[in-house]
Amino acid sequence: MVATTLQDLAMRPKPYSWSGTASADFDATAMSAFVGKYMLIGVTYLDAAGQAEASIQMHGVVESATEQGITISLKGEREGESWTMPANVNAISPADPGRYQLPETGEIVENPDFITTWVVQRPHSG
Question: How many Cα atoms sit within 13 Å of 3 on the Cβ side?
Fold first, then answer.
């Protein structure tokens, strides 16, 4: 198990949530099937040149799925936080049964229902 200090927790990057609306092919019935399910999440943030700036792993329970996004109530070291991702069913995959270790925190997540990964690139300025 990895020991984490309060200073480590204060210095780790806060995951940016998404805001917006879903695409025209949003399927409320398909999205509602995710509510209450356990999600393992990986997000890589890139700078404008495409170089990795940060990588964040999280996990939690889907609390809502609407056209405005899928909101996950985070668990583990991010307990009490929430994170919102785009309402895109194509970005979610069933997870294989097993134990997943998060590189950032060392946390072990057992048998999540789904996995989603995202790459977010900062826009070019100017």
Answer: 1
pTM to 2 decimal places: 0.77
> What is the C-alpha separation between 73 and 82, in angstroms, rounded?
5
Residue 115, strand partner residues: 40, 93
Q: Is 31 exposed, middle or buried (CB count within 10 Å of its CB: 0-12, 13-18, 19+)?
A: buried
The per-residue b/e assignment along 96-122, b for 16 or more CB within 10 angstroms, e otherwise, is: eeeebebebbebebeebebbbebeeee
For 22, the enclosing helix (H) or strand (E) is none
Q: Which helix (H) or strand (E) holds 126?
A: none
Q: What is the pLDDT of residues 11-21, one digit of tens each?
A: 445 565 555 55
Cβ 69 vs Cβ 88: under 8 Å:
no
Structure token pair of residue 92: 């979610």
The ranges assigned to domains in the chain are 21-121
Q: What is the DSSP string of 37-105?
A: -EEEEEEEEE-TTS-EEEEEEEEEEEEEEETTEEEEEE-GGGTT-EEEE---GGGEEEPPSSEEE-TTT
